[in-house]
Amino acid sequence: MGSDHHGNRYGRSEQARTAVLHAADDLLVEHGFAGLTIEKIAAKAGVAKQTIYRWWPSKVDILLDAYGPDQARDLTPADLGSLDADLRAHLATVASFLTTSDAGAVYRALVGQAQHDPVLADRLRSTHLADQRVRDRLPFERAIARGELPSDVDIDAAAQRLIAVIHYRVLVTGEPVDRSFTDALVDDFLAQ
Amino acid sequence: MGSDHHGNRYGRSEQARTAVLHAADDLLVEHGFAGLTIEKIAAKAGVAKQTIYRWWPSKVDILLDAYGPDQARDLTPADLGSLDADLRAHLATVASFLTTSDAGAVYRALVGQAQHDPVLADRLRSTHLADQRVRDRLPFERAIARGELPSDVDIDAAAQRLIAVIHYRVLVTGEPVDRSFTDALVDDFLAQ
Amino acid sequence: MGSDHHGNRYGRSEQARTAVLHAADDLLVEHGFAGLTIEKIAAKAGVAKQTIYRWWPSKVDILLDAYGPDQARDLTPADLGSLDADLRAHLATVASFLTTSDAGAVYRALVGQAQHDPVLADRLRSTHLADQRVRDRLPFERAIARGELPSDVDIDAAAQRLIAVIHYRVLVTGEPVDRSFTDALVDDFLAQ
Amino acid sequence: MGSDHHGNRYGRSEQARTAVLHAADDLLVEHGFAGLTIEKIAAKAGVAKQTIYRWWPSKVDILLDAYGPDQARDLTPADLGSLDADLRAHLATVASFLTTSDAGAVYRALVGQAQHDPVLADRLRSTHLADQRVRDRLPFERAIARGELPSDVDIDAAAQRLIAVIHYRVLVTGEPVDRSFTDALVDDFLAQ
DNA sequence: ACTTAACCGAGACGGTACGTCTCGTCTTTAG
DNA sequence: CTAAAGACGAGACGTACCGTCTCGGTTAAGT
């Protein structure tokens, strides 16, 4: 069957892997990034420290593993039939994800740590951020297919101007990012 | 006389203070935030750990002290006679400050750490970020005074949309922020 | 079939058994008792750890297995025709065995470990030491049979006084135990 | 005053030092040499591990420090006025020390460990064993001064033959070493 | 000049977490 | 059923820093 064993030569324990990811997630949300230690993850997951070090070089690698699926699940924009609706819904989702979800807390911690760690920054950008950029393009690509937008529009630039402000407020100024704010962003963009 | 003493009851040693600030700055640039320890700052500054703990509660407080003057010196937008010129110059200055200067490295470290430390985030926002927001308004305020912009324009919103993209690329995506990019931002804004 | 198999339903592998004993012996002599780990024995013997744990409870049990035959082979006193000759030869053999042979190194390690481990001490005494005590009596028993000694002599006490000094110098003081020393012991004993 | 401080540049804490030595002693007696870990010593002594590593390279160094004074205190032979009395008393004291005292347990552990560690063996011999050899000579030196023995007697050899048997029984055979046994040793020696 | 008291350097202290090592157990696949 | 292989939970290792403390020396204002 392949996954519910205690450890053998033919592969790692899926049980231990998920226990570690969940423990890391919980501890980050409860005690913050500084309170997230390998020691505590191991204790909470009921796992030996060596098992963690065997599979993850550091605690940020655990967070990277834990974050990936959440992002794909929560940040894929739905097709609501129009660019206006798609963008309003997606920006509101992004704002809520970043400010209120556990996965958003993991994301903020990773971006924070990336400021101190260029290797992490590279990994984060080449994996999760690149993945998300593809998802952020979807509303625009669908709008072009519908004929709502000309086909030569610079999608990445447009998406970035909308997404950037949300991240800036979340990561830097700490100002709230509510529905009226994200709707205003869309209004401005569509009025252009 | 007030600054070159080894210690007495009537005040702290200015020599020790500046040695600590410079040591912290150097260590941050050389070894990154994780390599910045009180122990190493003390050793590099030729100062006792207790002297550091007497005056700064933590290493981020040292960085906050070290950062303040740099920001005011480097990020005040000059008056070049027109909104167009002022914005082009200011955004280019901000981009260069954030990506290439030592003070920019300190800023990025502080914003990074603020993701893990809400108290630091509050302090950063209520002091340095609030100060900078005032400076970022200057081009717009001068434009209103010149009659280039109507007096009811939402300055903070306008400034934020321009500044946010630069921060997003610096802090999150790591994309370069060169002169042509900042100029395009200004073009877009003025065309609106 | 009997001995050269890789693991099957017909019993343990003699090949694995001897490989373990030899690997343990080698590692003890090369790297000392602390450098003798089950992990290293398994690696050197080309055997799985579990195979060792299946057959030996601990590393000292491996050493006990390895030691037994050596002692019987090397420490049985020959009959040279007289008490004087027998004792001189035997004590010299014992001294040389303890100080220079690989088996002597194993013995010293076992006695050393027995100081920390009462269970090992008991096992060592009830097996190997009891066996050796029988062998150490032989010169005296032959001397009584020859009429060189009265039949009521306390053989164990006599043997112990001679053997003890050799062990003391080997285990405690580290002083050399050369032929002149053992001969002097015999001289003293016979002059009594 | 010089000894009751918490730690500063002018010297180590005597309080921490004695707490470590006592903890090590207690743990050895309670849990044996294998159960004696730096971790547990630190915990029991209420001391940081680093404090132990600062002053002692290993746990055997702690035991060496702890053992020294005990040996000098307990194993110095008193002058009872005659060789016969001095020897009987001293051998009985040695036997009792080795078999029943806490310090004797430390000694046995050190000698046991010395079988695995030549560096420890050298240190033990050049310090504590050399010191004890001096004390073991005292009854004989006093006997020569009294005229009980000729001045050319080989004191070290004589002392060793008596002492060795006790150590052999304690360290190797585990046989009891009671007063009648040590008295018989003295009888034999004096009858010679 | 002398006292006084805060500040200075140095560094030992009790701790926490690190990342590594080895232990003895458990689980799988092959013969 | 035994074997090899190796992942597992457990826990001690020795190191690095943390933030606190105590010490003796330095310095300058107030006697």
- Supply the helix-strand structural class of chain A: mainly alpha
Output the CATH class name of the largest domain in chain A: Mainly Alpha
Q: Give the overall form of chain A.
A: elongated
Q: How much strand content do the residues of chain A show? A: under 5%
Mean pLDDT across the residues of chain A is: 93
Cα-atom radius of gyration of chain A: 19 Å
Number of helices of chain A: 9
Structural domains of chain A: how many? 2
Largest inter-chain interface? A-B, 29 and 29 residues
Model description:
The first copy, chain A, is elongated. Chain A folds into two domains: 14-56, Arc Repressor Mutant, subunit A; 63-191, Tetracycline Repressor, domain 2 (Orthogonal Bundle), CATH 1.10.357. Helices cover 73% and strands 0% of the residues of chain A. The first copy, chain A, has helices at 14-31, 38-45, 49-55, 59-74, 83-100, 102-114, 118-146, 155-173, 179-191. With 192 residues, chain A is mainly alpha-helical. Chain A contains nine helices and no strands. At the C-D interface, helix 6, helix 7 and helix 8 of C face helix 6, helix 7 and helix 8 of D. Chain A binds a DNA duplex (31 and 31 nucleotides) through helix 2 and helix 3. Chains A, B, C, D: Residues 14-74 form the HTH tetR-type domain. Chains A, B, C, D: Keywords: DNA-binding, Transcription, Transcription regulation. Chains A, B, C, D: InterPro entries: Cro/C1-type_HTH, Homeodomain-like_sf, HTH-type_TetR-like_transc_reg, HTH_TetR, Tet_transcr_reg_TetR-rel_C_sf, TetR_C. Chains A, B, C, D: This is TetR/AcrR family transcriptional regulator.
